[in-house]
């Protein structure tokens, strides 16, 4: 099992200390020292004020923030959680990802999804109703321009003729987020990992996604993923699956390291290869304490 977390910008207004170079570097150093394998940042370039005040959260640009972390760490995998692929021209994503992967020594994982905020789509001038078409086009562009010279592609709103973009990455894993059957079919056909979104029933309605509350919901979804992989002629060992435990985090009063380890064993038996843990966003000191405690009480004892 590998361990990662999303940088704790988890509310609005956030603690402004987290939006600083010193905090980003300190949290990353603490995570690497505690044995974490990866770190993520969310992708919200233009959230509405209404969404922020209704339970949303502030965000740093994931590519810029992960570049900062790449410069100050040696081993952490850099995993945006997640890049909303239709927000950007796919050639821009391809260039940013390839550059970050090169300068980090091959540590970048491109985790992507379609997103769900209509207002953010409108602010960015992207048609929300076209998001699935744009997403599939982007996957084709990424895999094409990373592997070919004089790449040609006619997409929605753009035509690329004879594009050659360097550097070409040796291999950037693509993880696809989302809880739908369509997301799992995309993983089977095009990707290296599945990054579903833990979503209680109420949140699932807001985020326009399939409810996913725990192992009981996850297991049949994984059965479907393995079936789709078999149909695509691929082996399940080729695919990473990232899933949050859904248990109290390391600074919560009800935190139980043994419960985490037991649940990790169950998830590993199902085929989950990465797990994430919630890190508090009330103070940098509290976040560092959570990372260190989880490293000492869970990661150091895990498989």
What labels would you give this structure?
TIM Barrel, 14% strand, nine-stranded parallel beta sheet, two-stranded antiparallel ribbon, 303 residues
Catalogue the unreliable spans: none
CATH T-level fold name: TIM Barrel
Percent of residues in beta strands? 5-15%
What is the overall number of helices? 11
Instruction: Please identify the structural class as seen in this structure.
Output: alpha/beta
User: If strands are numbered along the chain, what order do they take across the biggest sheet?
Assistant: 3-2-1-11-10-9-8-5-4
Q: Kindly state the mean pLDDT as a whole number?
A: 94
Number of DSSP E strands: 11
User: What about the largest sheet?
Assistant: 9 strands, parallel
- CATH superfamily label: Luciferase-like domain
Q: Overall 3D geometry?
A: globular
SSE succession = EHEHHEEHEHHEEEHEHHEHEH
Helix percentage:
40-55%
At CATH level 2, the architecture is: Alpha-Beta Barrel
Distance between the termini: 6 Å
Description:
- With 303 residues, the protein is an alpha/beta fold.
- It has a single domain, classed as Alpha-Beta Barrel (TIM Barrel).
- The chain contains eleven helices and eleven strands.
- The strands form two sheets. A nine-stranded parallel β-sheet has the order 3-2-1-11-10-9-8-5-4. Strands 6-7 form a two-stranded antiparallel sheet.
- The chain is globular and about 55 Å long.
- It starts with a strand and ends in a 6-residue tail after the last helix.
């Amino acid at each position: 099992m590998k361990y990662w977390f999303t940088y704790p910008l988890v509310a609005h207004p956030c603690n402004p200390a987290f939006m600083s170079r010193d905090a980003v570097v300190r949290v990353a150093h603490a995570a690497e020292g505690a044995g974490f394998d990866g770190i993520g940042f969310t992708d919200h370039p233009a959230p509405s004020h209404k969404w922020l005040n209704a339970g949303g959260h502030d965000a740093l640009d994931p590519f810029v923030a992960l570049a900062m972390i790449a410069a100050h760490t040696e081993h952490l995998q850099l995993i945006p959680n997640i890049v909303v692929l239709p927000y950007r021209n796919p050639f821009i994503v391809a260039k940013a990802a390839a550059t970050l992967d090169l300068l980090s020594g091959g540590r970048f994982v491109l985790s992507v999804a379609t997103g769900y905020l209509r207002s953010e789509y409108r602010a960015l001038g992207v048609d929300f109703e076209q998001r699935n078409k744009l997403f599939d086009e982007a996957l084709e562009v990424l895999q094409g321009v990373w592997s070919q010279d004089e790449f040609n592609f006619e997409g929605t709103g753009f035509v690329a003729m004879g594009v050659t973009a360097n550097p070409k990455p040796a291999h950037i894993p693509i993880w696809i987020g989302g809880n739908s059957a369509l997301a799992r079919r995309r993983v089977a056909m095009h990707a290296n990992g599945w990054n579903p979104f833990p979503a209680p029933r109420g949140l699932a309605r807001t985020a326009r996604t399939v409810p996913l509350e725990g192992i009981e919901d996850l297991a049949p979804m994984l059965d479907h993923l393995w079936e789709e992989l078999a149909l695509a002629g691929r082996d399940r060992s080729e695919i990473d699956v990232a899933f949050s435990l859904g248990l109290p985090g390391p600074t919560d009063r009800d935190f139980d390291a043994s419960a985490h380890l037991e649940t990790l064993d169950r998830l590993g038996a199902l085929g989950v290869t990465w797990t994430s843990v919630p890190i508090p966003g009330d103070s940098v000191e509290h976040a560092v304490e959570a990372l260190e405690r989880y490293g000492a009480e869970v990661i150091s004892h895990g498989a």
